[in-house]
Amino acid sequence: MRQLLRSPAVRAAIAILLLTPLRAVAQDVTETALKAAFIYNFAKFTEWPADVMPAGKPLLICVLGDAAIAEALARAVKGRALAGHVPEVSQSAPAGPKPGACHILYLSAVTASQAATLVAALRDAPVLTISDVEGFTQLGGIAQFFFEGGQLRFTVNTESAKRARLLISSRLLVLAKTK
Length: 179
Description:
Elements: H1 2-6, H2 8-19, H3 31-44, E1 46-47, E2 59-64, H4 67-77, E3 87-91, E4 104-107, H5 112-121, E5 128-131, E6 143-148, E7 151-156, H6 158-163, E8 167-168, H7 170-173
Parallel strand pairs: 2-3, 2-4, 4-5, 5-6
Antiparallel strand pairs: 1-8, 6-7
Helix pairs in contact: 3-4
């Protein structure tokens, strides 16, 4: 080994390697893309009643208040299917979606009182409600995003999910944080 290291060609190769700047290729993940990925995974690990999601019907995802999330979510679900359902993403009107228009409703850039009104209107409907509004799960929403230590985390209100007749996989619940 020592004799190999004495070779001028080997020393030159090592010097070149040490002096050549290495560029680390890192993919920046935006908050928007991360939330879109979480919403997709929430859908992946949630079951709706059969009467709400008949075979072959699309999974309707509505976004209220954040067009960037809607765009990122549309990119995230493009070409995918979840349990035989093709996801369709739409931007919801400020007043909220019409009953039956969504299987998932993501609320952002709304006040807590607006979120409470929308959640109350969907109280017993089989709609997976998700938001980043502070206290969303206490208002009756099902899942809430928050940041902790620079990481995106989430809480889940299992009582609200049961009331909505949604079955959330234990694989997702184990990742939820009690806030």
